[in-house]
Automatic annotation (TrEMBL):
Superkingdom of the organism of origin: Eukaryota
Organism, scientific name: Cajanus cajan
Name by which UniProt lists this protein: UPF0481 protein At3g47200 family
PANTHER family given in the database record: BNAC04G53230D PROTEIN, PROTEIN, PUTATIVE (DUF247)-RELATED
Region described as Disordered: 219-240
Pfam family, one: DUF247
Amino acid sequence: MVKHIIKIPGLEDLNLKDCCIYKVPYNIREVNKDAYTPQWISIGPIHLSKEKFKPMQEQKKRYFHYFWERVSNEEAMKNYKLYLKTEEEEIRQCYAEKFPDLTKEKFVDMVLLDAVFIMELLLRNCKWKSENKRHEQEFQPTKSFRQRHSEDPIVTQPWLSRNIARDLILLENQIPFYVLHKLYEDVVPCQYKQEKHTAGFVDLAIEYFVFYDTQMSSSDKTKKHSSGSPKSKSEDSSRDPKYVHFTDLMRGSYLSRTERKSDNAPHNLRTATKLKDSGVSFEKDVKRKLLDITFEKKRILSSFLCFGCLPCLNHFKARFIIPQLKVDHTTECVLRNLIALEQCHYPEKPYICNYVSLIDSLIHTQHDVEMLVEKEVIVHELGSDKEVATLVNGLCKHVVTNSTCYFETLIYCILYLLYIY
């Protein structure tokens, strides 16, 4: 009789249903570690202990002091900290790792400091944008604003502002969205809540990140994508059900306004240059959401009087209509983190992964990029078209999807190619 096989100590139950903040899977992270790693500031527990973030920890404390002066409501701040204490377990459940070395007190203080820092940063950003509409989508504070905030290196130095914003969208560098939403609703005084922010904290956050995507300028556009994010387990009104954190907010800003049927894709597309040689044209669209790609067929001369005998009426004009993709030195970081989020959190709705895979199919060489740039489907600030091709071709490495939301688009294109040949 076997009395002992292996000794396993008691294990904590694995609760993943509330988890939304993850460490990027190792194989994906190894492709480009820098794209997932904060450079200037740590938010949340994952990168908390790193020595290089200590200077910015001091700046967080200064922001806490500024926020305290802004609020001037000790009771509201005490109640918010009490709320964090009661929610501590739920907040921990948002992380894939539970960080047992962080005591309850240290964990709550960390979340409080990070939440207040983010809120003060967003309020300051809103202030200088309202003072200078000309620079609404740039990190270029006016001279008068710099003079009044000379003690603040973040809002007065554009390069640092941009790098902080970059760190705040990283998947590993998040605190739950509902924690920030609660702080905004219960603590931020009414005089700092602008009428244009009809969606409250969502709009305040969108205004901060708008330089990543000019289509983020209205909450009405992002509200339509909120169904993609899972609702929180609690019906507590303090929780905003739309987004789970800033990375999720970025994802929502790119999603198509219409639901698409997803299914297994038959095979990859031909490249952009080969499709062009087959008679497919490419057109940009600057108004659509980034993921709203369509393939259209239109009968030649279909708008004119038809006598039923012209042979050209059996032929079609085919075109891809693609929202303009702007590529700069932040694009890879943004897309990689959105892809990582979907791999961990939205395996059944990998819409960003599907988009990148489709663009990757169209681009194999710099010649494909050159043609798409000529059509203004892509505009970029990189050194060459070859760099764009290299960037796009590397995004899908180790990425796994079981379906694509472009199933119908691909089918229509394939049927067209079969027809003309």
